[in-house]
């Protein structure tokens, strides 16, 4: 029916896309035909970016050229960095700081005045945005902690360079590989709220920076991007209570509390990304000689499945994975943006190629034929 209201646009198909596909019943996710398992275990984040933006996996020469072009764009202009410093020193919220900084990047972009439909200009902008977000986030985190930013390196991959800038120490291969996998897993996921936000913005022929800024603002909401931080806060609360995880969760549910990291708008079974991240969490725990976060997570997962029929989503195991890497809890969502920027940009490029202004309608349920009364008679 034309006037049927679909709250949250649930089940409404609004676009065609060749980028990613989710089978919620089978627990399957693909990027341009490739399974997420194959990509996470066999491809770097740079390879996945190339796939999403160009439609195919690169060969060695293409990857080397693409990676070099990305690494050359990592430095951030002084004007933006000064604002990042000001925001960090004023204890601003990380996602708000990231949103502000990404919006400012447009002012310094050489292609700022390009036609929104200029694909080559948008690819250049996309490389700059994606390359600079890690620099911004690492600098913000260090400055607020009283440390000076670390200059990006061009000889490290996207994932390893971020960890290097964050900790002022080159990560070992295990940490770099785990973080790279995490970026691959979060790179795209259909028409989620932030991606749709970017598409709506770009459908007006606004520029790429505006679209990404819109997406960051949307991701900042607790119903979209904040779940993994909430998972880790929950796990720490369980740990601090010295109680059995299952007993803690059982009590929490009796008290009407929500157990973070379970259920998904699309998946009816375990999120395939959660399967891979659970392996990462276990691997990191074993390497550190302490698997308590992984074991606690598994116990909660098994209980929630048995008692509530709920499976974990990507946020549930990314929490303990990031925590064991020494990443501050409140930048988990900005890290989500660091990865998903690649998917946002891919969808915006796709939107520009076959654009139509996104303009849905609302069903009016207000009053009609109300008599107007002049102000002196009210």
Structure keywords:
3 strands, Citrate Synthase, domain 1, single chain, three-stranded antiparallel beta sheet, globular, Cytochrome p450-Terp, domain 2, 16 helices, 2 domains, 378 residues, mainly alpha
What does this structure look like?
There is one protein chain. The chain is mainly alpha-helical. The protein folds into two domains: 28-223 and 328-353, Citrate Synthase, domain 1 (Orthogonal Bundle), CATH 1.10.580; 227-324, Cytochrome p450-Terp, domain 2, CATH 1.10.230. The protein has helices at residues 36-42, 45-54, 60-71, 78-89, 94-108, 119-144, 158-167, 173-186, 193-203, 208-219, 227-241, 245-254, 272-288, 292-308, 314-324, 332-353, and strands at 20-23, 28-31, 34-35. Strands 1-2-3 form a three-stranded antiparallel sheet. Strand 2 (28-31) and strand 3 form a beta hairpin. Helix 2 runs parallel beside helix 16 (332-353), helix 8 (173-186) runs antiparallel to helix 15 (314-324) and helix 13 runs parallel beside helix 15 (314-324). The longest helix has 26 residues, at 119-144. The two termini are 41 Å apart.
